[in-house]
Amino acid sequence: MTTARPGEVGDLPRAIGRPATRALADAGVTTLAQVAAMPRAELLGLHGVGPRAARVLDETLGRGESS
Questions:
Q1: What is the pTM of this model?
Q2: How many Å apart are CA 51 and CA 17, to the nearest integer?
Q3: d(CA 41, CA 7)
Q4: How far apart are the C-alpha atoms of 1 and 15, rounded to whole Å?
Q5: DSSP labels, 4-63
Q6: Are the C-beta atoms of 25 and 34 separated by less than 8 Å?
Q7: Which residue, 23, 25, 28, is CA-closest to 9?
Q8: Using CB atoms within 10 A of its CB, is residue 27 exposed (0-12), middle (13-18) or buried (19+)?
């Protein structure tokens, strides 16, 4: 487990919160480009990434929730 803090990991937005930031960092995902390459189901499958964090990431990436 990492000590990832929101706003301090790559270009991930602070608004996703600490659990989601930590989950993504633990999975080796530290950039929005890496998030964009992930299917939404895989993103939501990470422990710590909930619907709110996924929505923030989708909005940041400019994609709809069906991606």
A1: 0.85
A2: 12
A3: 23
A4: 20
A5: --TTSSTT--GGG-HHHHHHHHHTT--SHHHHHTS-HHHHHHSTT--HHHHHHHHHHHT-
A6: no
A7: 25
A8: middle
Instruction: Give the C-alpha distances (Å, rounded to integers) separating 46 from 21, 25.
Output: 11, 11
d(CA 16, CA 18): 7
Residue found by looking up tokens 């991930």 in the block: 12
For residue 51 the two structure tokens come to 């619907």
pLDDT in tens, 8-62: 788 999 999 999 999 999 999 999 999 999 999 999 999 999 999 999 999 999 9
**Length of the chain counted residue by residue:** 67
